[in-house]
Each structure stands twice: as C-alpha cells, then as structure tokens.
User: Fold these one by one.
Assistant:
Number 1:
Amino acid sequence: MNNNGILSKLRTGIWEDNPGLVQLLGLCPLLAVTTTFVNGLGLGIATLLVLTCSNVLVSATRRLIRAEIRIPMYVLIISSLVTCIEMIFLAWFPSLGRSLGIFIPLIVTNCAIVARAEVFASRNTISASFLDGIAMGSGFALLLAAIGAFRELIGQGSIMSRLDMLFGGEPMSGLVLVDGGFLLAILPPGAFISLGLFVAAKNAIDRRRHQTNRPISSNTLR
Amino acid sequence: MQAETTPSSWTSGLILAGLAAVCTALVAVTHSSTAPRIAANEQAYLEQSLQPVLQGIEYDGNLSESTITITPPHELPGDEDVPVYRVYADGTPVAALFVVRAMDGFSGPIRLLVGIDARGAISGVRVLEHRETPGLGDLIEADKSDWIQQFNGKSLTSPAVSVWAIKRDGGEFDQLTGASITPRSVIKAIKETLAYFEENRDDVFAVEPRSEAQ
C-alpha cells in the first residue's frame, strides 16, 4: 500500500471515523477510566494492542471463518489476547495495571474491537487489517488520552500526573496548576459532559472546514 | 470460504476446537513467562504497602512469612478472612498488622491495613481499597491528605474508647469536609480492631506461623 493510502487510513481512524468520537463505540471504558491522562493513555494503548493483534489474527484465520461460528471465534481470539495483555500489564506496569483494574479484562467487551473484526478484518488482507487496527486503535487511544487530560485538568488542576505508572521511576505529581479543581469533571457525569464537548468540538471543526471550503453555500445559508 | 468440504457442524466444531487450542497455548505461554514477574511484583507491593504502618518499628525477617489468617466468625470488622502479618524483632513480637474491611463506607466496603504495636497502640493505618467519592471521601488515602495520620500512636486508652469518633459526633478525631460517613466507618473499624487485639493479643502471636505461597 502506498504512503497516501496509509495516511488516509490513519486519518479515517483518528478523525473522520474515530471509533469513540464518531461511531461512539466502546463507551464503557471511555467514560469510566478517563479520570487522568495516564489512565486514559494506558487503557488506550492496551486497547490499541488488542485491536491490532485481534485484527491480524482474525484476518489470518478469515478463510476458516464460517458465518455460523464467527462470533465465537472473535470472542475466543479477543478474550485470549486480552488475558495476555492483562498479564503483560501486571508484569511490567504493575501500578498502572492496578489503577486500571477491572477495565483491562473488560476490553473484551469493547464493541469497537468486535466491530472491526466483523466489518474489516474478516474481509481484508493481513496487512490491511493490521493498518486498520493501528488506525482505529490510535483514534481510540488518542481520544481516551485527550479526554483523560481534559478531565484531569478541570477536575484536579494538574497535567500528566503519575506518568511514572507507565514509564517507571519515582511517583511524580505532574504539573500542578491549581490545587484542587472542579470535582464534577472526575465524577461520572463529567465523563459524559466531556465526551459531549469533544463530539461537539469535532463537529464544529468539521463544519467550519466545510464552510471555508465552500464559502458560497455558507453565505446563502444566512 | 466455499471450500471443498461440505459445511457441517462437525467442521465448524473442529475449527473452533483448533482455534481454542491455539488461543489456550498463547495464554499458557504468556502466563508462564509473566507469572514469576507478577508474583515478584505482588510481593514487592505487599512489602511496600506494609512499610507505612510500621513507622519507627525495628523488625527482622520477611513480613509475609509470619502471616496467619483469622477466619470468621471473629469480632474483627468485616465478615471475611482477615490476614494478619505478625512482626517480630529477635523473636519478640513487636507488632501485628490486620487487613480488615470497614463494611459501612459510603460506597461499599473500605479495606484497611491497621498496624498495632505490642503495647496496643496504632503504629499506622492505611487504606488499601475503597470506592469513596473522589475529592471528598477519598481524602482517607494517605496520598491525598494526612487525615489517616492522626491515628498514629493512639490506643484504646488514649483517647478513651468513648471519644473514638469524629468531632461532629462528640469525638476526638477530625472529620473530612463534605464526608462524614466515610471517616465514621474507618474510625469504627480501627476501634474494633484495637479491641480485638486487646482481647486476643496472646492468641494472635501464639498461632504457629503458616508458610504462605504468596
């Protein structure tokens, strides 16, 4: 695949067809763990790994897939991968693994992963599925990290605290801007509000872009 | 997909079984290569989390080796098995660390590590696990405020049992702004643990150490 194809694929996954922002898939982890940047990024990376590996495996076995057993096959592949990822997290990133807790095993239920297996990986080549996994996974991971950073900033007044959970070293408090913050942002309602703001921002950007591309139509609207 | 075999449930079953075998192998390999590391991490985490409740206490040996488990029914908070880490220096007991559950937290049980020295005074308390409200009830965590430090050195005689409560309830201990159920539940659990230790001190240290795998 040429460079242009790869870029447009990444663009689709990260912006135009972002699994969280546009397809609104996998909301359970998205809303639950994004209380800090490092949590969002950690689960984002875990999901990215699972999605890429599951796309590759599903694509590799796509000739064996029969319509009647495809869902059990996806579930088998995805749940084994998630189990492996969980063990890897507990072995190499123990504090992040503890902090994410049940949400690593719950990646199994992230419908964004089954959706990609069904819609894309089971019909395309291994390399295309790999790229699709990277693109969609990055889109999801970036969204999780962005919402995490946003909620952490509003809710705790800090930026990138506890990065040591991912990269090792002494516990670090990150950049503390204000002591304490607007509590609502870390509570569950804040998750919905933040996601709503992100979706609204994306739509606003898209609309503005659309308008600058076709100035005449925007004038006629007024 | 339209291969030469006739589609039958047998083939489907075989495909699934084959895939299951491959996936199981994958998990087994990952497990065997990560298991020692995970066990070491858990051990290190245990030692590290026991450290804060042993402030100023000299002890020897591996903490996890002298662990006993008190099984229900018992008078300790919570109705589950209570692991007790017993700490010795030169063969003399110097402290016992209880992992208890305060059952009446604001959102579910709060797991506490309560350290009591040989004289019956608190050597330190730490919250191990809780689901209290972020920003209000979670100030019981040592990382978030020094509320939990106020119990250091306290025992059932100082202050008296009757004032083992938050100030709002006429007690001796600070409350947390916006949360009173959480501190109440923590204080009650600590008090009950102290009372249990007072009653059963000899038994706690007498039971033969049970060597534990983890």
Number 2:
Amino acid sequence: MRGLLAFLTLLVALLFAVSLLIGPAGFGIGESLSALFGNGGEAITLVMQEIRLPRALLAVMIGISLGLSGAALQGFLRNPLAEPGLIGVSSSAALGAVLALQTGLAAAFALALPLAALSGAGLAVLLLLLLAGPRGGSLTLILAGIAISALAGALTALVLNLSPNPFAVSEIVFWMMGSLADRSFTHVWLALPFMMLGWALIMTQGRGLDALTLGEDAAGSLGIKLGQMRLILVAGVAASVGAATAVAGAIGFVGLVVPHILRPFVGARPSALLPASALGGAVLVLLADIAVRVAVPDRDLKLGVLMAIVGAPLFLHLIYKTRRSMG
Amino acid sequence: MATAHQIGRCILVSVGRSKLIAPIWAALIMVGAAHADAPMRVVSMNLCTDQLAMLLAAPNQLISVSDIASDPRMSPMAEQAADYPVNHGQAEEIFLLSPDLVLAGVYSDPVVISMLRRLGVRVEQIGLVNALDQVPTRIEEVGALLEQEAAAQTIIAQYETDLANIIPPQTGPRAEFYYPNGYALGTGTLSNDILTTAGFRHIAAEMGRGNSGRLALELMVLADPDLMIHAELYPAASRSEEIMTHPALKALPAAVTSSNSDWICGTPAVIAALSRLVELRLELEGS
C-alpha cells in the first residue's frame, strides 16, 4: 500500500515534468527548467511560468478531483459504475458554468464561475443519491445518470446556441469533452480552493466507506451516520468536480477507470482506494493531456475524446460483469 | 506597457472615419439614375457585396442586403444598411423578392446559389480581396454589373489617391494578428496588405506563414511583437476569445489594438483602417 502510493507519487512527478517539457516551442530540457525558475529569456520564462506550468498543475488538480470523486461515489454506492462523468455530475457542472459565463455573472464576480458549476454538480449528485438510495442499484443509477446527462447536455447546448457570442456554439464540444489548452493561473487560483475543500471533505470519509462495505446495519452499529456521510460526500464531490469542470469542461471516465485499475492493489478497501485513486487520476489526466499534445499538436484534441476511447470499453466490460445484478 | 495600451486605445477612439471617407460619399451623391436596361431589383447576400452595392447602386436599384450588413461589428456601412430590407441568404426569401440580379460571394452557400440559378435568377459571385490593389477590380466588377461604371470610376480614383498618400517606410514595428482560438492571419491576406502598407512588418512573413491558421500561444509569446492586433470582443463570454487576454500575452510589452469592420471587405473602408494604423505606428515610433 505504502509502496503503491510512493510509486504513484513518483509517476505523477515524472509525468508533471514531461508535461512541462512538451510544447510547440520546443526548448531544450535545461533551457526549459531554468526558465521555469525565472533564469532565462523573458519570453521563455513567460511561456514556462504562465502557459505550461498552469496547464500541468491543472492536469494534476483535475486528475485528483476526478479520481477521488469516482472512488468516493463507488464506495458509497457500492457500485463500480458510479462515476461523475457518466452519471451526469460533470455535465450538470458544465451547465452551471455555462450559465454563469453567458449571463455575465462570472464577468461581474469571478467566483461565480466555480460556485455555479459547484451548484450544478451538487444538485446532480444529490438527486442521484436520493434516487439510487444508499444501496445504489445499478439500473436506477445508470438510468438516472443518463437522464441527468441528457438534460444537462441539452440545456448547455441551448444556452450556448442562444448566446449573442458567435463563438459560443462551437464551444459546446469543449464543455462536453474538456480540454486544458491555453488555460492560465487565473484558472488554477479559481479552482484550487474549492478542489482542496472537496478533497478534504472526501478524505474524511475513508473510515465510513470501509464500514459501509459490511452493510448499512453493520456500519450503523459502528457509529457511522449514513445521512451525514451522504451530505459530506455530496459537498466534496460537488466542490471538486464542479471546480474541475468550471475551468476545463467535463472530462469523463477518469473516475471510472482509475479506481477500477487500482482496486486490486489496495485489497478493495475504500479508505485505501481514496488516496490511490487521487494520485492515479492525476497520472491518467497528465498522460491524456500529454498524449493529445503529442498526437495532434496543433488541433486541441479534447481530453474527453481520449478518455472515452480508453474508458468506454472498460465501462462495457463492467456492465457485462454486473449485468446479473442489474436484472 | 500600460502606456502602450492607452496609446492604442486612444488612437482607436480619436481618429474618426468620417473625414477620410467623406469624398466617397460626395462621389455617391453624383451617381445618376441607372441605365434603362440595367438590373433594377438587385439583392445582395454577402457582407462585402452589400457594401459595394450600397456604394454603387442608384436610388432604388438595390432592394435588399444581408442581415449582417447592419451589424456594426462586421460592417462599416451598418448605418446605411439599416435603410434596406434584409435577407438571411435563404433561397426562398431571395426568390420571393423577384430580383433581376443577385450578388453573392465566392463562398456563399452553393446550394442556395444553384437553387436560385435553377429558378432562373441571375446570380453573380464576386471574388475575395487578398490585397489592396484588388479593391479597384472588385469595385469595377460590381459597377459593371449594376451598370454604374461612372460611379465606380469616381470611387476608384478617390481610393487610389487616398492609398497613394500613404507611403510605407522600409522598417517599421513588428506586428502580428491574434484572433479568437489563437487564429493568426497569414501573408496572403488583405489584412496583411493593410498592415504592411501602413508601415508595419508582419511577423507571419518572418515565420513564413502564407496561410492563416492557428498559432500556438507559446509561439505568439516568443514572437515578441511590438503590436498585437486582436478582434473586437462580442457580447457574453466565450472561451475562444479568452486567449486574447491570456496573462502570458498581457505580460508582453506589446501595444494592443483591435481590427474592426473596416478590415473585413475589400472596399474603400480599408483606407480608414490604414489611416488609423499609420497614426498608431507614428505613436509607437515616437515613444
């Protein structure tokens, strides 16, 4: 377990460095790193500090948020199909963000953007947990998720279509697929406080999630309050997924793939899966963001495209495995 | 940097267009009635032909212009366009206007154009303008189609006089266009010609970019321009436009201005764009 976390941390650090070294400008390694710490030409320093650094940081932050949220939702619902992107949490967050941007609220008050995305995500998680119940029946969860995704996606498209800004319509794909291209420190500072709050809230629930694996009654007898736990998880997932989506659009499948891969290594213990999934999420998003830049350097291929190519087959595999319980 | 910004904004506000274009309006008043066999129900469905037609047509000869002709962000003749009924480039509405001539651009919807032609409507497509010396050709073409050759010659003469008054220096400040989504113009464009005629060096030429296209933000920062030309912002927000206010660009010591409706079409309005740029260059060189 310790070894796994150390390995994942090392992998995050390595990929973070690779992410900083990739870009159309093609500097040497030494040149890039010295510019990163402010010892270089003015323009190179700007590129490293204001363009590449925030991008790599956001990949890590968003990866942690999505990996952690996926592991938490799966633990609480005891269902491997629960994932913020698939069950409509991310698309609801995107709807909130788009509303804040298009109404001008975000221009008047910068925090309106993450707050609106957080509200959207929060409403979706709350609705899902109420519908699916503590037992998290797969069928209810997936069907409710499909409905919420479809509605949020349609409303996002509607808002962007009605925008007086001619560029808005072409950005539907950004909000549904997500991208880290040309983000800046403005976005890092906007998202980080909310994400950290979300991470902290989710991490406190490790013991409760462990107890829940024994069943609700056993968890109750161990002093776990299910209602309170649900509220804390709703707030945690909403804050981290909301902030991630507000700055980078909805990136799906991270929260599905990462806990699935890591679960065997942590002995299926949710409390151990949480930190591992957080780091694993960072690894996956960094990898995806490096891959889109290497594969099609000047096209801004959306991260969600890559994640779906990796994640959708796994999702189908999971449905195949759980179809009996889905009836 | 703040002063450079202010200079840029100041100039945009202070140099009006009215003085520069006035002779063209004077020329317009002299336009006589159309010839007897000239087309008398002309419909234009393209922003650029809209402007040329409004400049050249005799009273009542032009019966409709496109809807964006009255958008001040796109059209330097938005006020005049407000006097005309608009069309939205749809075959049905244009056919119902029973035009005897439809003016379209080379990139106007080919389905609409072929449908109109099938219905027996005469459609003429006017080419793009990629350089300042092509402006007279387009004016002449539209003038000939409307049978307003004399008016066309008056406008061309004025345009050429205005253009000749702008003498570019050999080495000016280095400038680059940077539009939403990181779209940068290449050297084969009308805007390139406006920029270089105003005495700037276009960074696209250094980079060997003939075609317009996406230029990575990193490369834009490294290009270290003296002047960045952005597009005017539309209302409400878009991620596409956000790139123009990226902190890395704002940290550059470059002056910033934006191109407006005068830059879009090859009409005499380009003279106004040129004059503003020349003023801006003199300010930059003076500072």
